[in-house]
Amino acid sequence: MTPKTFEDVFSALSRLVGDALRVDPATITPETNLIYDLNAESIDLVDIRFRIEEAFGFRIEQREFIAAMAADNPRDVGSQLTMRRLSEFVLARTETVS
Amino acid sequence: MSALDGRRAVVTGGSRGIGRAAAIALARAGASQVTIGYLDNESAASEACRLIESAGARAHAVRANLAAAGGVDRFFNEAGANDGGVDVFVHCAAMAAFKPLAETRENQWDLIMNTNARSFLSGAQRAAALMPDGGCMVAVSSLGAMRALRNYGAMGPTKAALESVVRGLAVELAPRGVRVNAVSAGLVSDTGIDTLPGAAAVRDAASARTPMGRIARPDEIASVIVFLCEAASGWITGQTIVVDGGWSLV
């Protein structure tokens, strides 16, 4: 899978996250927070990371993932963990790989 | 001559905790090659390799997500490229979500079950194909396989499945002289438990309950794993050996 735009990545991630957390992808927006809105737990973030690796074909180190998600404040990953942030991270990685 | 002279070992979850201790102990016992699997922590894997080599074996680390479809095959393909065979297969890789079982989600169940139990079966199948007659396999289980431990989530069922797989494979592989056993550990220091909130309280409670008065060190589990790979344990197969300082007796 090589999405080219933010919308492509967001759409793919909405399906992926929805499938992992048993949430209707149609209810997910870019501002949806994985932890506060979708009740994702730490193991769910591992699961989602693995699913992204599988779907997009690149490897994501846990350290890199957390750092990217917590770019604004390393002490507060939770509030920054939105679908927008996740989509931007994956889009950037997709562009690096391709 | 050492007990495991020249043996080629593969250890999943070998970069930290019990897996790392087992990999080092196998090297000390004479293994010539120890390949470890690790999920994420490259620096921990490098350090484990350094310690394995200090103990006298060639070391090789392979990054592998054993829970992924085909993950075990990819791990063995890369590990096998350097080994050419496997005499000892030790499965330590594990994942956990410490929460009530009643609140465990389907995706969490799948991830934990696939990492802890399915990957042992897949790994054992691959190892058996690469293993000469007389090889051995050991899986790391836990007391949660037989007991309802508070907030142990899906871990207990996965370890119960693991122990069942051990018994089944032990019977199926016995005609080839391949032995399959499990080691059931209680709480062990220097493992994932250390990163959890309230870890100190959990450790204190476990120590207080344990007749031996403390929790285990990884090397105390590793030494039993090595024993189960040695000729001295040649009549033991399909068993789960409890190594818990007496915790389960009281």
Summarize the helices and strands and which ones pair or pack.
The complex is a heterodimer of chains A (98) and B (250).
Chain A: H1 6-21, H2 42-56, H3 62-69, H4 83-97
Helix pairs in contact in A: 1-2, 1-4
Chain B: E1 8-12, H1 17-28, E2 33-38, H2 42-54, E3 58-63, H3 71-83, E4 88-91, H4 106-130, E5 136-142, H5 155-173, E6 179-185, H6 199-209, H7 218-229, E7 240-243
Written description of the protein model:
The complex is a heterodimer of chains A (98) and B (250). Chain A contains 4 helices and no strands. By secondary structure, chain A is mostly helical. With 250 residues, chain B is of the alpha/beta class. Helices cover 42% and strands 16% of the residues of chain B. In chain B, α2 links the parallel β2 and β3. The longest helix of chain B has 25 residues. The model of chain B has no long low-confidence stretch (mean pLDDT 93). The chains are: A mainly alpha (98), B alpha/beta (250).
Report the principal-axis shape of chain B. globular
Q: Tally the helices of chain A: what do you get?
A: 4
Low-confidence stretches of chain B: none
Share of β-strand residues of chain B: 15-25%
Radius of gyration of chain A: 12 Å
Distance between the termini of chain B: 41 Å
The tally of strands of chain B reads: 7
Taking all Cα atoms into account, the compactness measure Rg of chain B is 17 Å
The total count of strands of chain A amounts to 0
- Structural category of chain B is alpha/beta
Note the beta-strand portion of chain A. under 5%
Task: Output the helix-strand order of chain A.
Answer: HHHH
Count of discrete alpha- or pi-helical segments spanning 4 or more residues of chain B: 7
Poorly predicted regions of chain A: none
Helix content of chain A: 55-70%
For the largest beta-sheet of chain A, the strand count, sense and barrel status come to:
none
Described by its quaternary structure, the protein is: heterodimer
Judged by helices, strands and strand pairing, the structural class of chain A is mainly alpha
Largest interface: A-B, 16 and 18 residues
N-to-C span of chain A: 11 Å
